[in-house]
Specification:
- The chain is of the alpha/beta class and 248 residues long.
- It has a single domain (5-202, 216-235), classed as Alpha-Beta Barrel (TIM Barrel).
- It contains 7 helices and 12 strands.
- Helix 1 (22-31) runs parallel beside helix 2 (46-61), helix 1 packs parallel to helix 7 and helix 5 runs parallel beside helix 7.
- The longest helix is centred in the N-terminal third of the chain and has 16 residues, at 46-61.
Length: 248
C-alpha cells in the first residue's frame, strides 16, 4: 500500500466493554468492511499488549487491514496514534496520527499524517468530555486542519456517519457502537455502508444501488470497500509509505 491513510469506519478497541471478547468484535467488524483498528488497552503490561497486537494484526492481515497502536510505541508495527499532549516531535514512523480537539492543537501538527477530532457528539465512553463540537464545529476544525481528519466521539448511527462525511471527514472513529454491539457484523455493515453511500452518492438511487459499470464487482450487501484515501491536495506535504497491503 502506498500513501494510504485511515478512512471509512475506524475501530477503537476497548476489551473491557467488548461484547463476547475483543477478538470477536474485531473479526466481525473486519468481515464487514472495517480496515483500520486502533489498539488502545493502555492499562496492559507491554508484553500483553504486544501479544494482543500480534493477534489483531493476524485478523486484519487477510483483509489487507492496518493496526494502529495508541501511544508512541508501535509494538512491533509502524503505525501509531498519539494523544494531543505529546510526544512532540512525533516519532519518525510511516504512519502517525494525533488526537486533536481545537484549532491550536491542529496548528501544532508537524509531520503527523492524519488527526482525529473529538468529541463530535456526547459519548458514553468519556461522559462529560467536551463540550461536543456538533457537525458545525467538526466542519470548522476540518477546514482548519492541515491533514485529513477522522471524526470521533459519539458516532453510533448511519446518519451520524453521513453527517461527518458531508462535513469533510475522511472517516469516523468508532468505539462503543461496535464494541458494545450485540452483533458487531451487523453494526459494522450499517456504518460502513453509510460511509460508502456518503462518499459515492452517484452509486445509489432512491435507497438502492445504481447499476455497476461493466466489469466491476459489487457484493450483495456492501459497496466496494475503501481502505484509505490519499491526502487532499491542499495539505501540501508528501504522504507516508505505510506497511500494509491495499484492502481487498
Amino acid at each position: 500500500m502506498t500513501g494510504v491513510l485511515p478512512s471509512g469506519v475506524v475501530l477503537l478497541t476497548d476489551r473491557l466493554v467488548a461484547r463476547g471478547g475483543l477478538e470477536r468484535v474485531v473479526a466481525g467488524a473486519v468481515a464487514q468492511g472495517v480496515r483500520w483498528v486502533v489498539l488502545r488497552e493502555k492499562d496492559l503490561p507491554r508484553a500483553e499488549r504486544a501479544a494482543l497486537a500480534v493477534d489483531l494484526r493476524a485478523i486484519l492481515a487477510d483483509a489487507g487491514g492496518t493496526l494502529v497502536v495508541a501511544g508512541p510505541d508501535p509494538l512491533g508495527g509502524d503505525a501509531v496514534h498519539l494523544p494531543a499532549a505529546g510526544p512532540y516531535p512525533p516519532p519518525a514512523l510511516p504512519l502517525v496520527g494525533r488526537s486533536c480537539h481545537s484549532v491550536p492543537e491542529l496548528n501544532r501538527l508537524t509531520t503527523e499524517h492524519y488527526a482525529t477530532v473529538s468529541p463530535v457528539w456526547p459519548t458514553s465512553t468519556k461522559p462529560g468530555y467536551g463540550p461536543p463540537l456538533q457537525v458545525d464545529g467538526l466542519r470548522k476544525l476540518i477546514e482548519a486542519s492541515p491533514v485529513p481528519v477522522l471524526a470521533l466521539g459519539g458516532v453510533e448511527t448511519p446518519e451520524q456517519v453521513t453527517a461527518c462525511v458531508e462535513a469533510g471527514a475522511a472517516g469516523v472513529a468508532v468505539l462503543g457502537a461496535l464494541m458494545r454491539a450485540e452483533d458487531p457484523r451487523v453494526a459494522a455493515q450499517l456504518l460502513t455502508s453509510a460511509f460508502q453511500e456518503a462518499v459515492t452518492p452517484e452509486r445509489f438511487i432512491a435507497g438502492g444501488l445504481a447499476p455497476c459499470p461493466p466489469g466491476s464487482v459489487l457484493g450483495p450487501t456492501l459497496p466496494p470497500l475503501v481502505s484509505g484515501v490519499p491526502a487532499r491536495s491542499g495539505h501540501g506535504r508528501p504522504q507516508p509509505q505505510t506497511a500494509t497491503k491495499e484492502a481487498t
